Amino acid sequence: MKNRITELFKIEYPIIQAGMIWCSGWELASAVSNAGGLGLIGSGSMHPENLRHHIQRCKGATTKPFGVNVPLLYPEIEKIMDIIVDEGVKIVFTSAGNPATWTQWLKERGITVVHVVANTKFAKKCQDVGVDAIVAEGFEAGGHNGREETTTMCLIPMVREVCNLPLIAAGGIGSGSAMAAAFCLGAEAVQVGSLFAASEESSAHAHFKKAITETGDGGTELTLKELVPVRLIKNAFYKKIQEAYSRDADTEELKTLLGHGRAKKGMFEGDLVEGELEIGQVSAMIHEVKPAAEILNNLWAGFLDTAQKLGKLI
Question: What local confidence, expressed as pLDDT, does residue 61 receive?
Fold first, then answer.
């Protein structure tokens, strides 16, 4: 397929792997890129020199385009950005912050910039500050999420109405038919997280990957909205959060309960009891761990099959 997204990134398929913390190392990014999509290294869980290591390994594992996802709230973001430029990365996805902060700085250095939004306000801001494309991420997505709780099916056409930038749909994309639905609503590509979090090449712990395949319908919930909204698997740590809410815990108590390093403990170290297990609603559709290339190929085949069925219906 050729469209604005595939041309922008010089990729074969309009499928982007999300830059997830603790899941998106160089092995996953290079596998997705080698399969014809766009792989992203998730810098949010990496110290600057660790990111440099992942970029260099990724460059050694693929000759195809890949990028880096950068949460703009990252405490050492200046170092992260300098490493990205120094290592010659040409695509950056920014999230969790104001797109005006770094977009022009990156573009002046020849880097394509994509920003993740959860509402129309920031979609319009992205267009104003010169972002090259937008990821519109709906309420279904795993990890940190928008406070508005707007679902993907509503968000995509809302963003399309106010913005003419190339548009990538995210949140709840777990099949080729879901990808086709996003295209019907105005998207030109999809960004996929949960499916790739459970891939063989994901840097997540094997225990976490197994937990993803066992999540089931209703097994996740968006919580901790007083801090930063995050969608989690309902494990023992999640139950502690609910107990805190039941006694009207204030923000400081919630911060203390969350502490530091819970996402690493759960997703990277495999502590399924006390860890923070971030994953999307679509995890209920994931039943086995598969290679990243197989996941991408299944998405594309399902997309084409759905498009053909739609054509026959018309």
Answer: 98
